[in-house]
Amino acid sequence: MFNKLIVTLMPLAPKFIVKMISKRYIAGEDTASAMVTCQKLKDQGFLTTVDILGESVTSNEQALEARDSYLDLITEVSKNNIAKNISLKPTAMGLGLSADLANEYIAAIVKKANEAGVFIRIDMEDSPYTDQTLEMYDRLRSQYPQLGTVIQAYMHRSLDDVKQIAATKGNLRICKGIYKESPQIAYQDADEIRQNYLKLVKEMLVSGAYVGIATHDPVLLDGSLQIINDLKISPDKYEFQALLGVPIVKRLEELTSKGHRVRIYVPFGSEWYAYSSRRLKENPDVAGYVLKNLFVTN
Ligand SMILES: Cc1cc2nc3c(=O)[nH]c(=O)nc-3n(C[C@H](O)[C@H](O)[C@H](O)COP(=O)(O)OP(=O)(O)OC[C@H]3O[C@@H](n4cnc5c(N)ncnc54)[C@H](O)[C@@H]3O)c2cc1C
After folding, report:
1. 149 - beta bridge partners?
2. What is the pLDDT of residue 295?
3. How far is CA 14 from CA 21, 189, 294, in A?
4. How far apart are CA 25 and CA 162, in angstroms?
5. How many Å apart are CA 257 and CA 132, to the nearest integer?
6. What is the CA radius of gyration of the chain?
7. What is the spatial distance between Cα 133 and Cα 150, in angstroms, rounded to a whole number?
8. Strand 119-122, strand 147-152: pairing
9. Domain boundaries, the chain
10. CA dihedral defined by 196, 197, 202, 208, rounded to 10 degrees?
11. Does residue 24 sit in helix, strand or coil?
């Protein structure tokens, strides 16, 4: 209750307070901080994917700036060989302004990344962008193999989408989905979303397509492991994925110790506010936990 209140009041709080609360979810504001976090995670046995925070840009200049930041990031990660796996949001590249613009910018990033041996995953945003994102993925993937995208288990359409992509041995991250979608197109019930999630993971694994199992939900972690065991899937056909800062490190370490790959999503950049607000709304307990730590001296 107290934590929910904190999240409700968050828009009124000074930014430095939000920043303090959300520190655990972001690697910092610049590439160097992100690389430090990735190196630490690597030392702990985790893989990483880096994301430059930002979405829904409102001008071509902002989209161009985002494209250039990603091109620079590719140069950086290929140099230090730490995090050769990058995630990006299509609306950060202007998809909300013009599909042609976003296609051009994302194609430039994917081309440079593939030449540098860097994998790109196109994140999935809200439903107005689903078709365009999947079309973009399909078009680019025929040219650039080091490319993946994301399917959200709450969408009714997802099993059909997964079947098509699995049939061509595409590379998908499966997540529950984080945006608010209507009951006409998306499951609202937690158990229905879970059931669909496991169906999607199974479809990918049965087809021999590579899948990123992105969840912190113990039921889905257990369910996915069961499918992997039952089907005797080799560990190079899947990976588990989690967001930086979500307090399930013990469970993740247990997975790596048993030979499963685990990748942490490491966001960084100056646009930390929107991302952190979403994370805190998802789990208000974190706000209380961090605030409590402020008053405890170690
Ligand atoms: C690597 C990765 C990439 C993602 N990419 C996308 C994407 O491209 N598009 C998209 O729509 N969504 C994306 N998501 C978000 C995803 O759709 C879910 O909203 C999010 O993962 C929460 O769902 P869950 O499966 O963890 O289950 P939940 O039931 O939400 O959570 C399970 C448990 O984890 C805890 N938990 C969950 N989130 C947090 C948190 N932020 N802080 C602390 N505890 C938490 C919960 O309290 C609960 O105990 C991504 C998630 C991950 C892990």
Report:
1. 122, 172
2. 43
3. 11, 35, 16
4. 29
5. 39
6. 19
7. 9
8. parallel
9. 28-268
10. 120
11. helix
Contact status, residue 152 vs residue 176, Cβ threshold 8 Å: yes
* Ligand 1 pocket residue status of 37, Cβ below 6 Å: no
Q: Give all strands (DSSP E) within the chain, no chain letters.
A: 47-52, 85-88, 119-122, 147-152, 171-175, 210-214, 238-243, 262-268
Return the amino acid letter for 100: D
For residue 171, which amino acid is it? Answer: N
Ligand 1 lined by 175 (C-beta under 6 Å): yes
pLDDT 10s digits, 226-267? 999 999 999 999 999 999 988 899 999 999 999 999 999 999
Which of 239, 238, 241 is closest to 266 using CA atoms? Answer: 241
The catalytic site residues sit at: 123, 173
Q: What angle do CA 96, 99, 103 make, to 5 degrees?
A: 120
What separation in Å is there between the alpha carbon of 279 and the centre of ligand 1? 8
Task: Kindly tell me the number of DSSP H helices and DSSP E strands found in the chain.
Answer: 12, 8
Strand partners, 122: 88, 149
* Closest atom of ligand 1 relative to the 126 alpha carbon: 11
| CA 90 to centroid of chain Cα atoms | 13
Looking up tokens 């985790």 gives: 46
* Mean pLDDT for back-to-back runs of 10 residues, the chain (298 residues): 51 66 83 95 96 90 96 92 92 95 97 97 97 97 96 98 97 95 98 98 98 97 98 97 93 97 94 71 60 41
Task: Give the length of the chain.
Answer: 298
- Is the separation of the CB atoms in 252 and 242 below 8 Å? yes
124 pocket-lining for ligand 1 (C-beta < 6 Å)? yes
Which residue's CA lies nearest to atom 8 of ligand 1? 123
Which residues have a Cβ under 8 Å from the Cβ of 139 and sit 6 or more positions away?
Answer: 103
CATH number of 28-268: 3.20.20.220
